[in-house]
Amino acid sequence: MNGNGEARERWVRSGDVELCVAEYGMEGKEEDARRPTVVLVHGYPDSKEVWSSVAERLADRFHVVLYDVRGHGRSSAPRPLRGGFRLEKLTDDFLAVADAVSPDRPVHLVGHDWGSVQGWEFATAKRTEGRIVSFTSVSGPSLDHFGHWIKHRMRHPTPRRVAQLLGQGARSWYVYALHTPVLPELAWRGALGRQWPRMLARVEKLPPGEYPTPSLPQDAAHGAWLYRDNVRERLAHPRADAYAHAPVQLITPSGDPFLSERLYDDLDRWAPGLRRRTVPAKHWLPRTRPGQLAEWITEFVTATEDAGGGTTSPAKGLTGDCGPFAERFGGQLVLVTGAGSGIGRATAFAFAEAGARIVAVDRDAETASRTAELARLLGAPGAWAETVDVSDEQAMEKLAEKVRTEHGVVDVLVNNAGIGLSGTFLDTSPEEWRRVLDVNLWGVIHGCRLFARQMVDRGQGGHIVNTASAAAYLPSRALPAYSTSKAAVLMLSECLRAELAEHGIGVTAVCPGFVNTNITATARFAGVTEKEQERLRSKSSRLYRIRNYPPEKVAGALLHGVLRNAAVVPVTPEARGARLLARLSPRALRAMARLDPPL
Amino acid sequence: MSGVRGVQPDALDGFRDVQRLAYACAEAVAAQLRPGMTERDAARAMREWAVERGVRDWFHLPFAWFGDRTAFVGFKIPTQFFPTHRRLEAGMPFILDLAPIHRGFTADIGYSGCLGPNPVHDRLLADLRDHRDLILREVRERRSLQRIYEDVDRLMARQGYTNRHRAYPFGVIAHKVDRVKEHRWSPHIAGFGTQSLRGLAKDALHGHREGWSPLWSPYRMSDHPPQPGLWAVEPHLGFRGTGAKFEEILVVTEDDAFWLDDELPHVKRWQETDKGAAA
Questions:
Q1: Is residue A543 part of a domain?
Q2: Which residue from A125, A155, B59, B184 puts its CA 20 to 30 A from B133's CA?
Q3: For chain A, what is the domain count?
Q4: How many angstroms separate the CA atoms of A518 and A432, rounded?
Q5: Could you say which of A287, A321, A355 is where a domain stops?
Q6: How far apart are CA A540 and CA A545, in angstroms?
Q7: Domain, as residue range, for A172
Q8: How close B61 gets to chain A, by Cα (Å)?
Q9: How many CB atoms lie within 10 A of CB B82?
Q10: How, if at all, do strands A568-571 and A8-14 pair?
């Protein structure tokens, strides 16, 4: 990382404790002094090393500061422990660190887990006003907001609110456990402390590395006082004025086993102009998704700096009138094949609207660049066109390499390119078979092979969408080759989903029915004369036009499918109906397969 | 200008005048639009402006669409076309559509604009130019109207847009306009003037006998060469929540066709960009 990967350590005194502070990205050069300072605060049971991967990524652009919370890592613990971890004292520590590392300018604050709980305290307390420019919260609610959240649901119970209370109540089991005296300390210093690294690696799928640090049993034992000193008091008597005085970015992992996503439902009340981000991952984002976190932090810090910083009112460009798609896909890199028309193009536009960066791939250069151009107009921070025939293995390899070097690893891959082929089996020539399998199946195989490899190597998850078709499970005498190719895509997606699940990569197969795109205008009809070919094309186009199911709706369903990591997404009523029928009464479908299409 | 059946050559001036009047009305109201105004405010302002200048009857009353209603997002039933209480906001696109009748001449125009900069909308407006050229070229080639309709569709798909004129009644891209007798009392039904509806119905009856339709639609009833007369042509592009259209009169003769007037806001705008590009 340009020599910035090396941290400098120093000690800062706060009251009766000494805090160990590490700084990245300062080499004493003149321009370094102008860099924004980003302070990363760790959670429980952790030490500042939890942030090391993120800090290294941020060090290129920012002055990055980590510190061990009192009683953790190499910072000293207060004496006595009881009462020494109150949020007021933690605020003293933060101010001491901020004054030491950035005496003249306010800092950007990022917190994970208990670091975020503290961060909320810092970002809402009166005496820190003017010391914080922005706050990024990862997996840690404000105890005050949490208290109000519980009170509101207890006072006005509805079935949904009661379910939310019970859900979070069950997730908080460890909080109750930590309130028992002595036992947690004994467990952490004994078997739990020894087993923890292995348990964490297995449950969270952490990449191998020097984390957790050997100080873990000590950190965890001391950190129990974070809960005992604060939780009961704050939840029972939450502050009424816990409004954020800096812009806030909230990053929520959707698979967090400890915190319900519902906790943040009322947050806009406390943090005006809140920017929300979601990521499909578990609790330890700084270890499992360092790249994504670093990108979002960079983006938010830069936007706040550009907006002048330090204003309480949300600056333009900071708030997203987001919606779930923008929260999830904002800033991500999305590659769509067959993006020059139809479903591919609509998908590229839908992702662009959500703020994703787009690589639009099509064999037609003109339409691909048109897609990229319009994607930029829709708000994609970047959009590029690539002219590639997906059935060309070498071209696809070149594409994968080029995309990685120029734009990075793809977060969402949409293998959408496909061609239509109609005609009975006996009429279909081997050449036609080859062509349809080359594009519809091999195109998907190449895409999955090359880009899934990159996603796995990066180790930060991702998603693959393959466009299959309702024809994948709907037999028909008119579409043997097309249906075969799409059935293969569907099965490939299911197998791949099983294989890639352990890497946090989701796979979705989208199965549209009759959608009004130009696939009918470019489809081949086997075993007919050229003139008949034209007639069938225009006739089928006309029928599809009368059906008039827009590709935009397929794109919407596709994004939704990625959002909830669905395995199979049938789109259009006929596709859903056929899927149901294929399960309930396959014989009925087989009987229908014998009918000639009305062409 | 021989052979414009049913339209005297000097009558073209009358149509041109009322078309200019309608565009002047749209431009005047567009200039008054402010954030917070509703579609109904805009429609009322157009009506008052036109009535002050002598308009007594309407082919249809003024429509105004703001924001994603310019692309007819979520339109299911025809009543949704009527002006609503949707308020205009900064950056929002809008469309003003009115069809006044003045001294017996009908115009039907559509004016697209937006309140403040909106790059998507600018792009849509610029891309409408290809459609104006395509329609005129293919009408001159005397292709079947249904075929032209499909070619416009294809051009839209290639541009990356969706066809929003399909949402109009009968999915028309154009309809015939004609002279209307001026009556002292001119009621309207569902926003459409009864005199004009009567004219359309008469045309439809004639056309049905002779094999053509006064409505230029995607259906088989439009599978005929361009019928001489005056057609109000209104290609309407939609792109995810933003819509843009123009609407103006195309004069079709037995063997030729031309746009009635080139002194219109959208045409002038294209000419200015040309000049800007040349300079």
A1: yes
A2: B59
A3: 2
A4: 19
A5: A321
A6: 8
A7: 8-321
A8: 30
A9: 15
A10: unpaired
State how far the Cα of B72 lies from the Cα of B98, in Å rounded to an integer. 17
Closest residue in A to B220 (Cα) is A542
Q: Is residue A1 in some structural domain?
A: no
Number of domains in chain B: 1
Residue B80 lies in a domain: yes
User: Do A176 and A271 share a structural domain?
Assistant: yes
Out of A370, A545, A548, closest to residue B160 by CB = A370
Q: Does A260 touch chain B (CB under 8 A)?
A: no
> Does the residue A599 lie in any domain?
no
Output the CA torsion A240→A245→A251→A252 (10° steps): 10
**Which of A166, A236, A170, A210 lies closest to A47 in space, CA to CA?**
A210
pLDDT band at B138 (very low <50, low <70, confident <90, very high): very high
- Of A297, A321, A345, the domain-final residue: A321
Q: What is the mean pLDDT of each run of 10 residues along chain A (599 residues)?
A: 64 93 77 85 93 93 94 93 94 95 94 96 94 95 95 94 94 93 93 92 85 91 94 93 94 92 90 89 93 93 79 41 82 95 95 95 95 94 96 96 96 96 92 95 97 94 96 93 96 97 95 90 88 89 86 95 95 94 92 85
Q: Are A237 and A361 members of one domain?
A: no
Query: What is the distance between the alpha carbons of residues B69 and A379, in angstroms, rounded to a whole number?
Result: 20
- Burial of A206 from C-beta contacts in 10 A (0-12 / 13-18 / 19+): middle
Q: What is the 3-state secondary structure (H, E, C) of B53-71?
A: CCCCEEEEEEEEEEHHHHH
Does residue B11 belong to the interface with chain A, where contact is any CB pair within 8 Å? no
**pLDDT per residue as tens digits for the range B210-262:** 889 999 998 888 999 999 999 999 999 999 989 999 999 999 998 899 999 99
Active site residues per annotation of A? 482
Strand A333-337 to A412-415 pairing:
parallel
Same domain, A164 and A294: yes
Residues 13-72 of B with CB under 8 A from A: none
What is the CB-side half-sphere exposure of residue A396 using CA atoms within 13 A? 23
Q: Which residues pair with B177 in a beta bridge?
A: B230
Q: Tell me if A108 sits within 8 A of A86, measured CB to CB.
A: no
Could you tell me the CATH number of the domain that includes residue A491? 3.40.50.720
Residues A206, A257 share a domain:
yes
- The residue in chain B having the minimum alpha-carbon distance to the alpha carbon of residue A555 is B240
A442 secondary structure, DSSP code: I
How confident is the model over B154-168, as a mean pLDDT?
91
Question: Does a structural domain hold residue B130?
Answer: yes
Q: What are phi and psi of B239, to 5 degrees?
A: -145, 95
- My answer on whether A300 and A448 are in the same domain is no
Owning domain of residue B158: 11-278
Cβ contact A367–B158 (<8 Å)? yes
B5: in domain: no
We report the CATH number of the domain holding residue A49 as 3.40.50.1820
A132 forms beta bridges with A107
Q: Cα-flanking dihedrals φ and ψ of residue B85, to 5°?
A: -90, 15
- Domain with residue B274: its CATH number is 3.90.230.10
Is B237 domain-assigned? yes
User: What single letter denotes the amino acid at residue A411?
Assistant: D
Residues A370 and A235 in one domain: no
User: In this structure, what is the dihedral angle of CA atoms A509, A511, A517, A520, given to the nearest 10 degrees?
Assistant: 110
- For residues A237 and A365, state if they share a domain: no
Cβ separation of A552 and B162 shorter than 8 Å?
yes
Q: Residue B208: helix, strand or coil by DSSP? A: helix
Torsion of CA A87, A91, A93, A94, to 10 degrees: 130
Judgement on whether residues A521 and A504 belong to the same structural domain of the protein: yes
Whether the ipTM is more than 0.95: the answer is no
In a domain, A3, yes or no: no
